[in-house]
Amino acid sequence: MKKALILLVMLVSSAGVFAQTQWKVDPNHSSLNFDISHTGISIVNGKFLEYTGTLTTDGDALNAASFDFTVKVNSIDTSIEDRDNHLRSADFFEVEKYPNMTFKSTKMLATGKPEHYLLYGKLTIKDVTKDVIFDVYYGGIAKSDKGEKLGLKAKTTINRLDYNINYDPTAAALAKDVSILLHLQFAKQ
């Protein structure tokens, strides 16, 4: 009887260690930003305003975290309406045909530096899915009477040509590399 009780306590304890915590992105305290070099002399930046995302962790640990994001491409905002409409067109994102871009993580690894991780995953833009790696900085968890929030900063660079976003009639106006910077706050569910 005593052995059975000890085994039961061990099973309950180990189940708690592997309990998954669900988090949902808080768009009121997050931003999805990008920038690209224009004519080699300046930077054009923008953001996406509509997106959903979830994060699943083992408790509060990020080591085995998984991410799932969907971005409404139509929500692109570079502060210039004509440019935004052009970016939505078949020359660039083709939002009528491809309304969403998605990211699904495959693994997350600690780098050895405090609060720094590498987030691996699949980024889909238009009809192309490619492997990407984000450098992630873990900002921590804040607790209040409104619940728990978790903060992250993630950045990467992609080649737009890899995703069939290859419009550039002058072959000199737009750089191929696009820098992506995400400031994310998640609410515990």
TrEMBL record:
SMART domains: YceI
Domain spans labelled Lipid/polyisoprenoid-binding YceI-like: 22-187
Keyword Signal: yes
Keywords, sorted A to Z: Signal
Signal sequence region: 1-19
Domain of life: Bacteria
Full protein name: YceI family protein
UniProt organism field: Gelidibacter salicanalis
